[in-house]
Amino acid sequence: MKKSSAVKKFISMILIALMIAAMAFGVKFMINKYNQLSYPLKYTETVEKYCSEYDLDKSFVFAVIYCESRFKPDAESRVGARGLMQITSDTFDWIKYKLKDDREITFDDMYDPELNIEYGTFLLNYLFGRFEYPQNVLCAYNAGMSVAEKWLNNPEISENGIIVSPPYRETANYMTNVLSVAEKYQKIYFN
Question: Which of 70, 111, 125, 190 has a CA that sits 20 to 30 A from residue 20's CA?
Fold first, then answer.
């Protein structure tokens, strides 16, 4: 009789442990699904193609797209920046010139996800070559290269070659948001 009671207790403990494990798995699964819905991967093939071509971190590029447009290809900012990566007219012209792109394209084509990601990743690669650190790159992407250069030369704004406190509130928030979202993308998809 004692043996039977001990076996029942053991089986009960195993069942409770299995239920706890199943609940933990379910919670983890639900959190993962929530994170994937909150931070989607869209245009993955195109992002991977240009990240490979321009040697960029996918988490970083997905975060820029997320923060710039929430993956809406027809997004347009109050200053007229267009598409997924929010390219302005002047920046479009500059990138087209730098790429020696002789295709029959205009600024209106910045609504095309493939072209927008191509141009946006080219720009990010160029900015990394010029500014090295993600914080600097994001400041230059948001506020402009000449502004980022000035900030780098100001010891009240930068430390050890990194912009740490951009004086433009929008740029400071942008830098913080993109870096935070990039960490989330890395953790959710690329760990």
Answer: 190
